[in-house]
């Protein structure tokens, strides 16, 4: 019943990544218009202007911990371990990524960003524990 449902949190995270790409582009274009950046500096990605640095850093962040999220979701699906607990945890993880991204691209206050990251980090660890438990008990 829940097997293919695991793909919806994955797609929700992909939507977040596309939104962050769009925002990065918007902020970079604004920096070019304001004269604080040149389009040529994005060719090698060596220097990010202040207007887009938080967004760019968040985009990079979406390809760090979330890689393990995709791996566990696919592993859960392949092994038929996508139960209600795994699905709930997947949605909590994605929600934490949205909160983390929002904080990162706005105020970037570590005081608020870190707890959002920790929720995702712990939730993802629990997803892997669910997967391991299922493998051990079957």
What's the topology here?
Blueprint: H1 7-34, H2 53-61, H3 65-78, H4 84-105, H5 110-137
Helix pairs in contact: 1-2, 1-4, 3-5, 4-5
Descriptive account of the structure:
This protein is mainly α. The chain has a single domain, classed as Up-down Bundle (Four Helix Bundle (Hemerythrin (Met), subunit A)). The protein is 73% helix and 0% strand. It is built from five helices and no strands. Helix 1 packs antiparallel against helix 2 (53-61), helix 3 (65-78) runs parallel beside helix 5 (110-137) and helix 4 (84-105) runs antiparallel to helix 5 (110-137). The chain is elongated, with a radius of gyration of 18 Å. The protein starts with 6 loop residues before the first helix and ends with a helix. The mean pLDDT is 95.
Mean pLDDT: 95
Q: Kindly identify the CATH topology.
A: Four Helix Bundle (Hemerythrin (Met), subunit A)
Low-confidence spans: pLDDT under 50, at least 5 residues? none
Number of strands: 0
Please tell me what the overall shape is: elongated
The CATH homologous superfamily name equals Membrane associated eicosanoid/glutathione metabolism-like domain
Radius of gyration in whole Å, from Cα?
18 Å
For the record, give the distance between the C-alpha atoms at the N and C termini, rounded to a whole number. 18 Å
Question: Which properties best describe this structure?
Answer:
mainly alpha; Four Helix Bundle (Hemerythrin (Met), subunit A); elongated; 138 residues
